Amino acid sequence: LQKKVEMCNWEKGHYINYAKMSENLSVVRSRLNRPLNFAEKVLYSHLDDPHGQEIERGKSYLRLRPDRVACQDATAQMAILQFMSAGMPSVATPTTVHCDHLIEAQVGGERDLARAQDINKEVYDFLATSCAKYNIGFWRPGSGIIHQIILENYAFPGALMIGTDSHTPNAGGLGMAAIGVGGADAVDVMANLPWELKAPKVIGVRLTGELSGWTSPKDIILKVAGILTVKGGTGAIIEYHGPGVKTLSCTGMGTICNMGAEIGATTSIFPFNDRMYDYLVATKRKAIGDFAREYAAELKEDEGAEYDDLIELNLSELEPHINGPFTPDLATPISKFKDAVAANKWPSELKVGLIGSCTNSSYEDMSRAASIAQDALDHGIKAQAVFTVTPGSEQIRATIERDGQLKTLEDFGGMVLANACGPCIGQWDRKDVKKGEPNSIISSYNRNFTGRNDANPATHAFVTSPDLVVALTLAGTLNFNPLTDKLKDKDGKEFMLQPPTGDGLPSRGYDPGRDTYQAPPEDRASVSVAVSPSSDRLQILEPFQAWDGKDALDMPILIKAQGKTTTDHISMAGPWLKYRGHLDNISNNMLIGAINSANGEANKVKNFTTGDFDAVPATARDYKKKGIKWVVIGDWNYGEGSSREHAALEPRHLGGLAIITRSFARIHETNLKKQGMLPLTFTNPEDYDKIQPDDKVDLMCTELAVGKPMTMKVHPKNGEPFTVQLSHTFNEGQIEWFKNGSALNTMAKKNSQ
Ligand code: SF4
After folding, report:
1. Which of 161, 310, 510, 515 has the most CB atoms less than 10 A away?
2. Distance CA 39, CA 44 (A)
3. Could you tell me which CATH class the domain 552-752 is placed in?
4. Is any ligand 1 atom within 6 A of the Cβ of residue 74?
5. Active site residue 378
């Protein structure tokens, strides 16, 4: 096990450390003294401190050392901007950035890509130069979708990766625990801090039997989503195992793990097996496959390993499924789908079929889809609905172009889109129906929430396998079941489609296609990062100021928020996402969704210096200009929702000092600490009611110490001052963050010493 095998073919000097992982595992084993499942093995083998780490599934917070970080272009902007302010010369953990989310589908791959390069030039230039500067692998627009590129190039069995995208778990198809995170977490790992994860529960899915005919790997996750629902995987890793696993292709396993995000799972994972080995060989990583075989005993569950829950699925009995509309967990087997369409009055005419995306664009997927299309063409018929094909990567596109599947899909009526997210993330200039018009579309994607694809809330979006997308697109109706129904050929003669067939891997190997990778240059010191000072989408982050060492006196309450205050209320998404690389501009959405307890309205607070009511961000800016620090008072579970680092950056940027609540959502609380703010809670939650929005407060910051409460003195507008006790969860290291102004300032300080 002392062999040196590199993690990937693109970087030098980063080796797979199975020896260290084994060592960590034996430490943990001797402590826990019980068989481990595979998910546990991957996590525990990456512990920062295997000796001292407290380990209880569902309870303890694991401090982990991931092997890699991956970012997509939308989330990478703020992550890199923050990393830059840490003052480090390069990332401490191998990292890649992938340009896939900002390319809009309009008229077809080539032209759409050229247009995106023009519109997003400043973002791409920033990412290309910052990646070059900080030793990050950069995948240019057109290279493909992050998760496909990771599977093809970077995933390896037993590894731990975090990625700033919710479908990062796709790499579980190669036995990697790949977990979607927010940008702040990615920055920590890039900057060599351990990464924290609540020890997940593990739900086992035991597969028996074998897929056949029209049933595909996608149907496994469509079925599991139906069983567990969109919330059922929350806080858990889904671990597939059992004899049925070896009947699935590696990319099929990737599809299943990818869509595990739809049930809220932390990630999903398959044990190392021969199909993964074959895929590693096909993607020019035989050495990794051979190395994994040596370590194979640790790349699956121990005998007798237990799961917190267990689902059993017999693949031989599994039917093809179609899930939706509007939610990915409404699972209907194809035999009952026609009745469901009628009973629910879903529009039965199919307007558009879309195959590909990060979920289902493997060589196998495209080959099977093309086999159905060819069957139709042989009978002289073509797609009845609009049909789009999104290759997941340039390598897939070039290979299916060489091997003919692309041509077949085009002859069938397909428009080939850029190797990018496109309609899956709403980057779709859809013209065939008007907004508000009820209509049905079907895709092989993973997510089908209202309006996601085309911003039309009346679009009924269904998700299924690429096989059924092609079959239903051919029929032009949701009422078609290819397992039982006949079609008419060009002469009106009835026929039945043959079940799809297709190779899992290309027999002639993959064609890499165009070179779309930018390696970091040798001389990185001379690279300057491209950010125009006049840009409204990007802004270099200035380090936040260190604490002045004093108590903070006489501060106004910017807003006393009442009820739910989610990260979406604190930093709204939608049109604001355009500014996610520009802290000052995006700060104009700060807390605009929070409800002011003084008037029950959103985004209307009183500026105590003028007496006027104004928007929350404008008021905060005015205080900042006048050198006045402020606080926010919040209700229960403040900051719940997706882990958006902007929700912590913005109040800090606009001059806030503390957020004082009845309770916090934990990730947001940590994010606030990272940005140098004070997240504090009322020791007695009823004190929330004693504070009025017009009050002023003194915060005894000098009292901040581990495990000790802090005093807040409240000066009511009318009435006697009183004190309130506040609690906090700061540890020693986090107190340093506050003192230095942020976690990154702390890191920068250490680096300069
Ligand atoms: Fe996310 Fe869709 Fe892109 Fe996949 S293809 S990364 S699901 S937006």
Report:
1. 161
2. 9
3. alpha beta
4. no
5. no
